[in-house]
Structure formats: structure tokens, C-alpha cells
Amino acid sequence: MSESPPAENQQPSRTRRRRLFIAVGLVVLLVIGPYIISRIRSPGRRVRVYSDSEHSVPADALPGLLSIVTYNIAHGRGAIDDNWQESNAAKRDRIEQIAQFLAKTNANVVVLNEVDFDSTWSGHQNQAATIAAEAGFAYRVEQRNLDFRFLYGSWKFGNAILSKYPILDAQVVDLPPHADWEDWLVGHKRGVVATLQLPDEQRVRVLAVHLEHRREINRVRGAKAIVDVAELLEVPLIVAGDLNSTPPGFPNARTTADGENAMEILQESGLFQWRPRADPTPSDMTYSSTNPVQIIDWILIPPNATFVAYEVLAGDLSDHRAVSATLRFAD
């Protein structure tokens, strides 16, 4: 019968295993720890309101009028599809160009989609803050759709509202996720609604939203959530952003298996109006910027407002085109 090895020979082996387990645990903690902490903290920082009078430009405050632009800026990557293809310097330069472009529109309010607040692929630049400062918007709301980080990377981006008028409050608008596990892991597309103080004691609410691109049923659920929000508000609501949906009868429109369409649900609610209502022309198309074939970026206004002006702005600073509108509110 063989004898057991001496205890003094087993001790170094146990020590090596213990050290290996500790080393592996430290590596896992360093890699996964920041991610876990970021996901725990994410609900408390989904919406933030900022003011910066140093970079403000006075609003062109015409009584009863509001000028608004919505723009999906595609993380500053331009008209290409790959967020990693260009250098950080190129993206920063493009964000400066986007700020100059928006400044020339003389808009009082700008809604941004796919705007980075701290993302590795855009050089950790807060694009909303840069655009607001360069284009002269003293007030802004940042709302994070995705919010997570690892040891050497972070992805924090979503929607933003830039305003030359004071922002009185802002709340997240929760939209149904594409998948619950996806929401738990990284987050999902939501919206943010902010109350703006216009001249003459008038107030308006602006909802910045980016609906899911993967399935029309997701957009239908999102549209129903928008209707629910609008029905609860006493203050007029403007909805702006990349809705990823096109009304039936328009080019490249989609419906669910049950024949539902997100834009049709918004229309049938009677709470919104938009342009164009029918027979869109090539100049009305918003996506893509280089080969525009459909309208998915919208400005929806309440029934007590009218369009004084409406225009899709051509350009290749993003894969989307910006939409500009001037509204007049009833007394």
C-alpha cells in the first residue's frame, strides 16, 4: 500500500492554488467590477439637467413662435455605419461642424438622438455639452439610453434636449425594451420629457425620443407609451426624434403581423399633427442622408399649434438628415 505524501510537500501546492485563485479573483474584479458598479448606478443618472449662462445666445423670442430642430447625429461618425472606423479627432471635428450647423438654424430648441456623453468610440467626449456650448444653448437635458463601462471602456449615450429657454424640469419616459435581459445588461431606448419656460409665461413640453429600429412591434409599443404620456399632460407636448417608423402609404413603411404601425397609432390618437401628411417628395426624406428613401425623423406638434415653416435639411454630417420646424401656438 502506497503512503500519502508528507504534509510539508502538500503545503506549497495549496499555497500556489490559493494565490492563483486570488489573482484570478482580482482580475475578474478589475474587469467586471466597474461594469457592475455602472449598472447599479445607472438608474439614478438617466436624466440630468444643466445650465450654462456663459455660452448662452439669446433666443429669437417672437411671441407665440417656437423654432425646433431634431437631429440624429449618429455618435459623430458621419454618414458611415461603423462607430469605430474613424479617429477620435475626426469625430470631435465633426461634432464642432454639427454645432456650427445647428447654430446657423437659429433654432430655440434642438433634440439630439444617438448623442454620446462618455463613450470610448468617440474619445469620451460629452457631445451634448460641446454642441450646446458651441451653438449657444444655455440649457440642456441629457438622458442616457445605454449606460455601462468596463475597466478600459465606457458606453454612455442617448438623447438630449438643448434649449435657449429655461428648462424647469425633466423626467425619463420609459419605453418597452426590445428584451428584458438586454435592458438589464446595458439599458435600452427611452425618452425624456422637459418643460420649457417660453416668453409671456407660456410653457411647452418637449419629448425627445428614439424608438427601436429592430421591429415595428417595438415601435408600436413605444407609440402607445407616447400617447399615454400626452394624454396625462395639461401643457402642450411636442414630440421630436428618430421614431424609426413611416406612415402607411409612405415609401418603405412597415407594419406588424397584426397590421399595426407606430405612426398610424400616433395619428389616430388625435394628439399630434406633422408634415408631410401625404405624398412625400424626395426632399422630405430623412434617411439616409446620402441616399434618402424614407422619413423616420419627425417633429410632432399638438393640435393647438400650426406649422409656420417645415424643412428637411440636407447634409452628410450624419447618416440622418436634420428636420427643422417653426410653430405658432394658439392663444
TrEMBL record:
InterPro entries: Endo/exonu/phosph_ase_sf, Endo/exonuclease/phosphatase, GPI-anchor_lipid_remodeler. One of its GO terms (cellular component) is membrane. Keywords: Endonuclease, Exonuclease, Hydrolase, Membrane, Nuclease, Transmembrane, Transmembrane helix. Residues 69-320 form the Endonuclease/exonuclease/phosphatase domain. The keyword Isomerase does not apply. GO terms for molecular function: endonuclease activity; exonuclease activity. The keyword Transmembrane applies. The chain crosses the membrane at residues 20-37. Pfam families: Exo_endo_phos. GO terms for biological process: GPI anchor biosynthetic process. PANTHER family: CALCOFLUOR WHITE HYPERSENSITIVE PROTEIN PRECURSOR, PGAP2-INTERACTING PROTEIN. This is Endonuclease/Exonuclease/phosphatase family protein. It comes from Symmachiella macrocystis. The lineage of its organism: Bacteria, Pseudomonadati, Planctomycetota, Planctomycetia, Planctomycetales.
